[in-house]
Amino acid sequence: MSANIVVPDASHNARVHRLLAEYSPAISVRLLNSLADGEKSVDVIHRVLVELKAEPVSMTLTAGVSG
User: Fold this and answer.
1) What is the distance between the terminal CA atoms of the chain, rounded to a whole angstrom?
2) Are 13 and 43 in contact (CB under 8 A)?
């Protein structure tokens, strides 16, 4: 099972931690940046990884939107 979690800004930090604590390691998680929030979103994802002492398995840059 897998889940995509969009992380627009720091206000979503607690939600990401809660979802990971509740469902990980039973699922594979992708943290996705918000195109509308730009670099702020990317910075928050990096901060979450540091807080969790986690390392990304892969990083992919794709132009466009999902769906």
Assistant:
1) 19
2) no
